[in-house]
């Protein structure tokens, strides 16, 4: 069986091969090397983060749609990660498969383990050791609860930001106190007896996967296993129909960005806002189940949290690699929300794949026409956009076959956009061999849609409209016209 093997990007990692644990779990993070305590069961031991399948390829370039931090943390030693050609093709088609989902979950888990270990190694001391000891104790009682806390999307945002600050002494101090909040959240969920003291920030203490504690007085807060039973709590809102949370509370639900940020998380919603989201979410899941049950299952598997976008944000959704397993989304009618979820989940899948495989070696220069945007895009952005829209074209095709109003027009328009971009991607001289195979899989999936074409001349009409848009774009960007066509 042909395998593609690559090393993960700096600051991340991946274990080769399928995980014996369910995708919603993941091995607990190993302890800091400085403590000298043994690694919890299933954790990679220090100096051996995963099994090797031979030499790795160069690390994947940073996703240009999500710029690298100004002061990135030093690289971590990483294992290679093997991906079979069959799984690569399955992922390229955008169609959900058990093997593809397992790969995405394994990559995310392995990245989180190495990231958390790097934080612990960079922040030795008695307090960190005490927090870790509480995590270990909770894990002995309820491993799944601890895994959910450590692999919660917002935990990844905190860990990346903390590691970056630990290696940038002249910047803001790292929020090492949040490690205590992780430990307390795990201990509360595992229902073990404990006593510890933490210092709330801004009059509240965020506990990942649980919500907020709001003490009635300033200063350090003494915490026990009964602290969450008090009336001073604000629980995280659980969306109906699964394990996905609507996160409008965690301070690390989205990475901090200087204004003007492309996307901004909403402030805490009102009960009316939560109820509105419940209705829209339930409606979106119903549509996904009706039109494309495999994508509905994929959403339940790969999405742990949804972060509502602030008003005024132009985007209907966004995916941020630091918060793997989460999407930012605007409240919208169920048909639009369902499409947003399909779209954003693909960005998360491709981000996981490009963490362990190099698909191209192009730089971040924005020079390509993307029919779904007005601004030029770098190759990485074009690839991400084509991949997400390929999934949307398939989703709307299935919806149309079930009689959804306007679905054929959506399918024809989006498919025409993808079909116009795929030849440009395939002909790019900086695609790697693996990248060419991946794009070939996308091309095969797009062509397979010919088996169920829209009625009448809708596809031809969409192609003609797209050609007019292309000419207009080339007139506005004459210096980039050579990059529009093969």
Features:
five-stranded mixed β-sheet, 12 strands, 486 residues, globular, alpha+beta, 13 helices, three-stranded antiparallel β-sheet
Order of strands across the main sheet: 8-9-10-12-11
Order of helical and strand elements: EEHHHHHHEEEEEEEHHEEEHHHHH
Number of helices, where a helix is a run of at least 4 consecutive DSSP H or I residues: 13
Strand content: 5-15%
Q: Please report the distance between the alpha carbons of the first and last residues.
A: 32 Å
Poorly predicted regions? 7-75
The dominant shape is globular
Spatial extent as radius of gyration: 23 Å
Overall mean pLDDT: 84
Number of strands: 12
Largest sheet: 5 strands, mixed
As a percent range, the share of helical residues equals 40-55%
**Category by helix and strand content:** alpha+beta
Verbal overview:
The chain is of the alpha+beta class. 45% of the residues lie in helices and 8% in strands. The protein has helices at 85-93, 98-122, 126-141, 143-150, 153-166, 177-190, 271-291, 293-302, 334-356, 379-401, 407-426, 433-448, 458-476, and strands at residues 3-7, 80-84, 195-198, 205-207, 211-213, 221-224, 233-235, 237-238, 245-246, 305-308, 317-318, 326-329. Strands 8-9-10-12-11 form a five-stranded mixed beta sheet, with helices on one face. It has a three-stranded antiparallel beta sheet with strand order 4-5-7. The longest helix has 25 residues, at 98-122. It is globular, with a radius of gyration of 23 Å. It starts with a strand and ends in a 10-residue tail after the last helix. Residues 7-75 have low confidence and may be disordered.
